[in-house]
Design a protein that fits this description.
The protein is built from three helices and seven strands, in the order βααββββββα. By secondary structure, the chain is an alpha+beta fold. A hairpin with a 2-residue loop joins strand 3 and strand 4.
Length: 146
């Protein structure tokens, strides 16, 4: 099944955007529904490899662990390594490309849940998550650079 995706232009260089993406301790301040993040392991490059999340995004309330693969300041991808009770599968990516006004950030996401959901409703929920995450990321990065 294809991932749902969305993009936004952030008025900052890719390195600044990626630094915010890698700062999981700050997620509860800008990522809607994220109550808590805990970095469990870190790679040789100093970036998080596994992160435990506590999510409270009505109607989903769950805890799960994601594994991350970083590609410099151009992309990061993740997949679920320890599912929660509701979130049974999740994979996604941020891809960053230079743009005239800063950096174009593309967010791709695919989620599966233990509760029955029509494909159309699941894609709509993914789109809401993507849109709010991109807007929160843009606001957080641009406020830090101001």
């Amino acid at each position: 099944m294809a991932r749902t995706s969305g993009d936004i232009v952030v008025a900052a260089p890719a390195a600044d955007v990626m630094a915010v993406i890698a700062d999981f301790a700050a997620y509860p301040s800008w990522a809607t529904g994220v109550r808590r993040c805990e970095v469990l392991t870190t790679g040789d490059d100093g970036r998080p490899e596994t992160v435990r999340f506590a999510l409270d995004a009505t109607p989903i309330r769950d805890e799960y662990t994601l594994g991350y693969t970083w590609h410099g300041d151009t992309s990061v991808s993740w997949e679920i390594v320890e599912p929660g009770e509701v979130l049974t599968s999740m994979d996604g990516a941020y891809e960053l490309e230079p743009a005239d006004a800063g950096t174009t950030v593309t967010y791709q996401l695919r989620v599966d849940v233990s509760i029955p959901l029509l494909g159309m409703l699941k894609r709509k929920a993914e789109k809401v998550v993507i849109d709010s995450a991109l807007k929160g990321l843009k606001k957080h990065v641009e406020a830090a650079g101001a």
